[in-house]
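Exercise 7. Given the encoded structure of a 323-residue chain, write a plausible sequence.
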């Protein structure tokens, strides 16, 4: 089933047309890119013959929510190495939902993740289980190609939707965190000899490190598929780190205004950490680079619980953002 893709209101002066693909409306666990990515991990887990899932992250993470939800639905034990201490953190919608799911939470120091992974995998094996750690070995290596598959397939979906609409996108913008989504779109573009520019608006990493990680992920994915790696791979990676506003989760009134405007004008629910920051970054990029006469696609990567966190914190009378 395709997620909706349609044109939205956007100042048209320069012959720009803006479309949005609503992966936030994927019909599982409140949607988002982690639904496609979560099912890709689940399929790989099955393929590897494993019988329980080990995840790593924060209670507020969209990925942990979706993976916890998949495991709960499938009746598969799920263990989360958790770097956040519950009582030191404000609850969020994701952390509340994590409380509902049957995921076993194991505290883990950020500087001792490898030891934590090793200890947990050891314990599960002694219990007779065959655990699947989503990031591969204890150093977090070995499965970089798995989430890439999810968005290489989504890219095919975009190509089909382009045909149906009778248009062709020149640019695809996506928020970029770990880079998995961007890597998948890029892999799909390379595999089909596409000429689209896939631009990640970084929400967490600086360009150089982020681009290297994307290059490795795409490389591993193509290698797994026994497909040739283009020599000029780095030349296809566009990761913009100029819109970070100080780093992951940081935002200011420009983001708040963008979120409010997009809800009013296009009824899009954006959040300040991922989609709101990336939408704002895309607007800046199009302006700063004087992009004209182009069809632009924005991938809405979800984060619905974060939209509601934002609405509760900033949306009341205290919201000073004006249009
Ligand atoms: C995880 C996430 C992203 C970033 O995706 P990556 O594949 O990690 O780059 C963007 N938007 C939302 C809502 C997310 O949860």
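Solution.
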């Amino acid at each position: 089933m395709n997620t909706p893709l349609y044109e939205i209101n956007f100042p048209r002066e320069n012959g720009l047309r803006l479309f949005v693909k609503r992966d936030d409306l994927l019909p599982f666990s409140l949607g988002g890119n982690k639904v496609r990515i979560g099912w890709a991990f689940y399929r790989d887990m099955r393929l590897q013959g494993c019988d329980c899932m080990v995840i790593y992250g924060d209670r507020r993470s969209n990925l942990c929510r979706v993976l916890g939800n998949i495991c709960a639905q499938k009746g598969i034990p799920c263990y989360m190495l958790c770097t956040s201490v519950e009582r030191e953190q404000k609850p969020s919608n994701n952390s509340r939902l994590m409380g509902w799911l049957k995921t076993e939470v194991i505290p883990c120091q950020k500087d001792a993740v490898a030891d934590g992974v090793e200890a947990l995998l050891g314990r599960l094996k002694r219990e007779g289980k065959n655990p699947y750690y989503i990031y591969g070995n204890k150093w977090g290596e070995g499965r970089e190609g798995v989430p890439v598959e999810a968005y290489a397939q989504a890219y095919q979906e975009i190509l089909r939707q382009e045909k149906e609409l009778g248009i062709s996108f020149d640019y695809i913008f996506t928020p970029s965190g770990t880079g998995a989504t961007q890597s998948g779109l890029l892999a799909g573009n390379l595999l089909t000899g596409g000429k689209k520019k896939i631009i990640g608006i970084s929400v967490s990493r600086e360009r150089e490190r982020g681009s290297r990680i994307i290059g490795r992920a795409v490389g591993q994915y193509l290698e797994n598929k026994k497909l040739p790696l283009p020599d000029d791979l780095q030349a296809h990676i566009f990761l913009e780190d100029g819109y970070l506003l100080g780093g992951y989760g940081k935002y200011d009134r420009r983001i708040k205004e963008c979120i409010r405007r997009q809800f009013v004008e296009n009824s899009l629910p954006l959040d300040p950490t991922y989609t709101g920051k990336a939408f704002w970054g895309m607007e800046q990029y199009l302006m700063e680079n004087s992009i004209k006469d182009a069809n632009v696609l924005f991938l809405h990567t979800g984060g619905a619980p974060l939209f509601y966190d934002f609405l509760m914190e900033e949306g009341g009378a205290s919201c000073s953002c004006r249009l």
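Remark. The pocket of pyridoxal-5'-phosphate is lined by residues 32-34, 62, 175-182, 274-275, 301-303 (CB under 6 Å). Students should compare their own answers with the one above.
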